Hints:
Blueprint: H1 6-22, E1 36-37, E2 46-49, E3 54-61, E4 66-74
Amino acid sequence: MNVLPDEVLKRYEKRKDIVAISGPDGLKQIKGFRDKALRGEWKGHRSSRLNIQYREICRIKKDQVLVQVVSATPHDYRKK
Length: 80
C-alpha cells in the first residue's frame, strides 16, 4: 500500500471540498489544479494536479456528482 505525502492528502481534501461546493466545474476556476479532460485510452477521465509531482486521475459521473479516483501517483517527467 502506497502512502501519499501529507501535503498531497491535504490538497486532495481541498479538491474534494471544491467539488462538493461548486461541482466538478469549480476545479476549472482554480489554475493551480490544472484540471483537464484526458484523451485517448483515458477518454472520459480527468486529471488534476495535487502538487508539482502528483496527479489525480478521476472519472466524474455528473448525474450523481460522484468522483471516482482512479489513481493518485507521482508523474514521471523523464522523456522516454
